[in-house]
Amino acid sequence: MTPEHRAPTTAVATLSGAAFGAAAVLLGAGVVADWPEGWAAVVCALVLAAVGTTVRAAGSRTEPAASPGTPVARPADAVPGDGPSPGKTTTTAQVAAARGRSSLVAAAALWALALLAGGIWAVSSGDDEDGRNDGGTAKGGPTASAKPTASASLDGKPAVAWTVPGVGQKYDKGVGSWGLGSAVVQGRIDGLFAYDADDGSVRWSVPAPTREALCGITPDVEEGIGLVAHGRHEKPCATLVAVRTSDGKVMWQRKLPGEGLVKGALAVGGTTAVTAEDGAVRARSAESGEQRWQRQVPKGCATLAVDADATHTLIVEQCGNGARLLALDTRTGDRRWTRDLPVESKATASVVSVSPAVVAVDETDARGTHAFLVFDDKGATTASVPLSGPEGVLSASGDVGDGRTVRPLVLDGLLITLAEHESMVPDRVVAYSLKDGRKAWAYDNEFQTSALAVEPDGRVAFLGSDASVTLLDPATGKAATVLKPDVAKLPDVSIEPELHPVTGGHVVLNQILMRAEPAAFALR
Fold first, then answer.
1. What is the CA radius of gyration of the chain?
2. pLDDT of 167-204, one tens digit each?
3. Is the whole-model pTM more than 0.85?
4. In Å, how far are 71, 84, 93, 507 from 88, measured between CA atoms?
């Protein structure tokens, strides 16, 4: 058989290489991973075809040469321009050299196509990863392009590491909680309990006195100290207790006069404990309980809400049918500024954030103010977000509004909360700009959304009714990770749970016992 019949043409070799490359990469990838699709499959096939053609070219250049001068007959049906010129006598070495040059040209073309396809693949992948959700709705589900973060080491299917059985009577309601990183403190009606994040064991506890129940707790702890309050059945919430969170030591205790503590009106700002009591707002040393300053509530007025950080204390105060927001110096009690609120009837209110100043206000007048209000550092209103609007009924803290009781987040210039959008329970996470009140993004969840938290790396976490934890990019609202327990029976989640990121995972606290829910459980 002549040499030209023993060796395939360059075109056939190229097509064979491409077919072999595509088949090899598809079969190999299907065994060890997911099947490549789209541009990924094209790039893989082109690369392997180019490799095959390059090898073919190298082989052509090293084929054994026939004796010099050995003629090679040209087929009768040869196409002009394909190989040596007609009418000329050609040696086998010359045919091999020509075939090698053609193979090199084909290999170069295939490498160029592979590089082009690779560039298109990279650009399209980058678009998917970096695309922003400008005011739209981010659909549920994890994104494969999420960048590694401090929480990215968490397993996508965490185990239920431990549970704490429910304690007390049906419909007992906890008053709040504190996240400490390596532990979580739950305020139950029977006292304060710190659960170790690793195994759920009780590190320490401060039981409520006999026949008294916890009736108040600070939203946060500062300088390692938090405050709780307790009282007897149908009596004022009148006993104030400061607790050191490292070991549960009671730092001091005070009996409050008259009607005791205004509901939910206690906070710790730096080393100062601030409380709204019967007729006054008082500040005490968080370490010793010694009074630092007090502000008498004007006659005909009542304190609706209080919160503080190390420098500012915010007080929402109603006088008659009007209301106002006061900013005081936390250390001295000096007034920084006062702003009248757009209120003309009885209202409820809560402080969402101290710095920046954000409050939620809900009037009894149906045509009155029902909104989150945002203020600058001089007390000027910068934005207003309705408690009910196109995104649904928004959740606020305390008894404000018609939505579920959830503490909204203020993070990176955004107000982030839950919304009842397409059902009677929260099913959407939505963010609004603090500059102008416009919606920044929204994320719809397949299941009920129940609680919000900020991860150590700055991402937003929310709890689903299926015991899953979804992590969102706070700038875009896109899902980065969905953590769902891989167990046959999921732990029950109550109607108003709280979520705390802890070292290596998350702890869920069921604050209202509806049936046989655990008081707490950990996902790790």
1. 35
2. 888 888 899 999 999 999 999 999 999 999 999 999 99
3. no
4. 10, 7, 14, 86
